[in-house]
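Objective 1b of the project was to move from sequence-level analysis to a structural picture of ligand recognition. The entry below was assembled by the postdoctoral researcher (A.K.) and checked by the PI before modelling. It contains the amino acid sequence of the target and the SMILES of the bound compound, flavin-adenine dinucleotide.
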Amino acid sequence: MAARFDAIVVGLGAHGSAALYNLAKWGCRVLGIERWAPGHGNASHHGLTRITRQCYAEGAGYVPLLRHSFEAYKTLERESKQARADRRVPALELYLQTGVLNIGDPLAGDALAAAQAHGLAHEVLDPAEVSRRFPGVAPPDGMRTLYEAAGGILRPEAMVAAHCQVAAFHGAAIRTGEQVLRWAALPDGGVRVDTDAGSYLADKLILSAGAWMPKLVPELEGLVVPERATVGWFKPRRPELFAPSRLPVWLLQLPGRPPFYGFPEFGGEPGFKLGAFNERGAAVADPEALDRAWSREGDEGPLREAMAAVFPEANGDLLRFGVCMFSGTPDGHFIVDLHPRHPQVVLCSACSGHGFKLSPAVGLAAAELARHGRCSSFEVEMRMHRLDAARVGHAQALARFATAGP
Ligand SMILES: Cc1cc2nc3c(=O)[nH]c(=O)nc-3n(C[C@H](O)[C@H](O)[C@H](O)COP(=O)(O)OP(=O)(O)OC[C@H]3O[C@@H](n4cnc5c(N)ncnc54)[C@H](O)[C@@H]3O)c2cc1C
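Corresponding predicted holo structure:
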């Protein structure tokens, strides 16, 4: 049995890597365990691009967390440069500001409400103005767009790697290629974590396993639901209109459809990339059995519909596709809280398709919960992400926590 750690973090994706980073910077003796190698494509944080923005249609309550995260992107970039200086390898660029278009209501209206509530810079544009500024974009008549200049593109694999690098620089132990099989609360108030390679002890445990959370915490079954997510890369008919200098990142709401989102051609990735939020029903019974096959009708069809409606010059040949997973909750918000029976364990599940950009704030919140039992930096803002019988689906889960064994 290895020596006891102050804390163990299980799952070094978006949020686990950020939690590890904070704990290590505070001088904690911390271990991070990740099932696959860094940069792997099996979970929710791969694919080279993530959108970040602050005029947040998902709720004005996220804005303070986003403000913190935007500052943290810069800090992390600087720190990863320092951490890598010794090894003379290039620093990781994490963020590119391109601006964000929120096209169509209720998306644009909800983003506007968040902007007004927090005094964020924004412009409301009509379709003609959108097309004048961004000639690859042609919203239908009457469709309102909110433009936010501050948003842009994050590089997810680089950001996870940077959090891990800086954590290691501050002394974190990191074990990759090691799968956590089970964990147990100990009578002395600590935890034991068993992997396919050994066992570890710690005072505190953060579980941040993304779509695998219900495997490690069965009480979350039905509350954190792995969902199939698809993205496609298409060869634009006029590529010059889809460079980052001509096109911001965007979100699109077509009437009666879940939102779409996408990117200019970026970072050596060929093609115009876009994705849909859960067009195919999407719940995945077992993340190990994710259907990774591409359906022309079910997956490609809706993406072509979105391009035909608003980006007609992008609607060329399919170059590449990707299938991955969201971990969704019924209300679309996160679950970041202490385990109801074992307060030495932090549950950290922050996806619903929009969590990556918030990983600096969520990672800090999870680390504070582990260290102090409360989240002092965002006491108010993180309340909406607690387990709470008033949230959809939570009463049933809390009942399972209350009745489940030790
Ligand atoms: C296609 C797609 C597009 C998205 N677009 C955006 C976007 O534009 N903007 C945005 O903000 N967010 C976006 N998101 C959401 C964002 O990527 C997720 O919110 C985020 O990755 C979730 O982080 P996580 O740490 O919870 O899970 P993950 O990032 O999936 O990390 C979980 C980690 O746990 C590991 N793990 C699981 N089980 C075990 C085990 N037993 N032992 C050890 N390790 C284990 C996994 O291997 C994985 O590395 C998108 C997600 C997807 C899928």
